[in-house]
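Supplementary Data S3. Sequence and structure tokens for construct A.
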Amino acid sequence: MHRRLKYIPISLLLFVAFLSQSLARQSISVKVNTDVDISVDIFAAKNNPDGTIFIWQPHEKGLQNADIQLAQQLAEIGTEVWLLDLFSI
């Protein structure tokens, strides 16, 4: 029983880290017309006093893991990122 209690704080820390990441990113769908919806991933900035939003469309090869990592890093330093994947339409 004592051994299990030792791992509870680590599990709780990992859960909180996962929860904060998932809350920082959200996806919405923007209806362009009756047939087309555009998926937008929003990476909310932790501190964005001037309301800066960076609207980003990936290159023709589509969305890459590096795009998502950079969007997360920009959000961490205070720039909200809206990542559009127009090639997935």
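Construct B, processed identically:
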Amino acid sequence: MAMRRRWEIKQPDELHVLQSAQMQAISWIGAYLGEAGNPRNLEIVDAGQAFLKPERLKQREALYLASANDPAQHMRVATNHNDRVLGLLYGTQTPNQQELQSLYVDPEYFGTGVAIDLVEDFIDWSDPERPIELSVVDDNYRAQAFYRRMGFTAVEAPPRPVKAFGKVFKHLYEIDMVREV
């Protein structure tokens, strides 16, 4: 467990389940909610609320506990001195791929270095001989700029609908980025 800045990067436990779900919902809605009348707003709010559904909380707790014992999964939270979740990262390794699957930061901590520390921790864990892949919403330019600063580049391919929470979004698209060896 490394102490960095005003937070600690560590393996989450069952106490972080609800906190991280609440932080993810706020982060998701804050990042993707469009202007009034945007047709995707209802999808965004529904998806944000999905983080807090009891069945999702049970899945999250199982994932947290499983990731602690599975060397192919990397789950970390950034917490402050009161153990409040400020950010969350989840990534995986398979024989064919390394993927940063989720990165969420409490909007109050955007631009503070929480995301940098979480991604650097993931890069340190990853196999340096293999690329790291991720997907990001195609119009989340802030996230894309962040990932470019972290060494990722966009993959030349058309955006595709986001698939999350057991559904395919109609108004939300993603692109792939890769951090080459």
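The longest strand covers residues 167-179. The first helix runs from residue 17 to 32.
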